[in-house]
Amino acid sequence: MDSIAANIETIREQIHAACIEAGRDPAGVRLIAVSKTHPASLIKEAFDAGHIVFGESYVQEFLEKCEDPLLAQLGIEWHFIGHLQSNKIRSIIGKVSLIHGIDKLSTAEELSKRALRNNLQVDYLLEVNTSGEASKYGMSPEELLSLAESLFTLPNITLRGLMTIASPDRVLAQQEFRLLRTLLDALKPISPDPSKLTELSMGMSGDFREAIHEGATMIRVGTAIFGWR
Ligand SMILES: *Cc1c(COP(=O)(O)O)cnc(C)c1O
């Protein structure tokens, strides 16, 4: 495998190329390095190469890493990208800049409650199941639209956008990314502050080019940076 620094550089070039193809400004796409299952030493290596935003999927693993002496003082911007159960919220709140995987009203309510109690403002994304696959987490598009008004009233949390994991097939994936963008556009008129509702977290190692074409503002890339898990 190439060095992590070289992998990140390659991905940056690919992001740039995809943005040019799509007529977009490359500054509008943030790369989240997905470090789940990889050791703190590799995260440190990526950080030393200039990368500061990392995504983790498992609560226990995330907590161990963010407290690891190698990483704790670096000022890493952590994103929680995994499925989040209500009972785990209190252990990560205040430690992550963005939570990508909220997929139930009850989880958002718990997040709001904990944010209020801790006097925090918390940014989050809702996960949408755009492929309709039963094995995937996420709200259905219909659920999202019917719950949106209730979600917008919850105090101390701000919905910043939507997240999805697409089908392995790239043609389907592109359609699913487009659906996510359409859903974000549908939420804007009912949002109390549409200027904050800007994020589309979509695209992984195998499909971030398609996601950028459809408007991704955050791509979550693991394997192409850190190698196989
Ligand atoms: C693991 C994971 C990724 C990264 O996937 P790769 O194919 O390794 O790039 C992205 N998003 C989520 C939610 C993940 O769990």
From TrEMBL:
Domain Alanine racemase N-terminal: 2-227
Annotated GO MF terms: pyridoxal phosphate binding
Cofactor: pyridoxal 5'-phosphate
Positions of post-translational N6-(pyridoxal phosphate)lysine modification: 36
Keywords: Pyridoxal phosphate
Pfam entry (one): Ala_racemase_N
PROSITE patterns, alphabetized: UPF0001
Entries under InterPro entries matching the protein: Ala_racemase_N, PLP-binding_barrel, PyrdxlP_homeostasis
Family, similarity comment: Belongs to the pyridoxal phosphate-binding protein YggS/PROSC family.
Function per UniProt: Pyridoxal 5'-phosphate (PLP)-binding protein, which is involved in PLP homeostasis.
Protein name: Pyridoxal phosphate homeostasis protein
Organism: Pelodictyon phaeoclathratiforme (strain DSM 5477 / BU-1)
